[in-house]
Amino acid sequence: MLKKLYSSPYLVRIVPFAAFVALTLIQGEFGDAGQYWIYTAKTLLGAWLLWLVRKHVAEMRWSFSWEAAAVGVAVFLAWVGLDGMYPMLMERSGSFNPVKSYGGGSPMALAFIAVRILGSTLVVPPLEEVFYRSFAYRWLVKPDFASVPLGAFRWWAFLVVGVVFGLNHFEWLPGILCAFAYQGLVCRKGRLGDAMAAHAITNLLLGAWVVWKDAWQFW
């Protein structure tokens, strides 16, 4: 099975993301406590799959630049700043609140908060950026996606992937804007690492904001 995974440029970019999403879809189906354990499981699974495919996804390399830092901070500001200023397309549950479930300062609450922040900062960015910005965007340009340079810009692929990415978040408007920003980084720099770094910065700042401001609706 691993040999088949490694031999396909499609599977190494799709399977880690698909496995993570599959667990996300059932995260809320096992009660209040169950969601924390499933989030932990999908984070560990995502990290393990990323480790397995790391040598077979050449573009999955972290890169840090001032542009990545600026985009990461700007997206965070848009994410929290636009809250309540646009219509929601679906009800936002905001149920991931370990403090409410276990009590503030409890070891379980702190552990699950740490897992959430680490997962969203270190695991989610490479999973989503590889799938959306490296695979889906280039595949829309040409089915032989590996032949399309990361820096290639096509308006229609830019718009389609951005909208799809955004609509997969409760915060659909900032989600679309952040997808445009991350894809713009990839096109500008010709590499994926800056978008991964920007995504990580956004999620880290958002996690800190959630805990600091009790803004659990973002989780």
Brief write-up:
The chain is mostly helical and 219 residues long.
Question: Care to describe what's here?
Answer:
With 219 residues, the protein is mainly α. The protein contains nine helices and no strands. The radius of gyration is 17 Å and the shape is globular. The mean pLDDT is 95.
Summarize the helices and strands and which ones pair or pack.
Blueprint: H1 2-7, H2 11-25, H3 31-53, H4 66-81, H5 98-102, H6 107-141, H7 155-167, H8 172-189, H9 193-213
Helix pairs in contact: 2-3, 2-6, 3-6, 4-8, 4-9, 6-7, 6-9, 7-8, 8-9
List keywords for this structure.
219 residues; mainly alpha
Rg computed from alpha carbons, rounded to a whole number of angstroms: 17 Å
Oligomerization category of the chains in this entry: single chain
Q: CA-to-CA gap between the ends?
A: 34 Å
The number of helices is 9
Shape: globular
Decide which structural class fits the backbone: mainly alpha
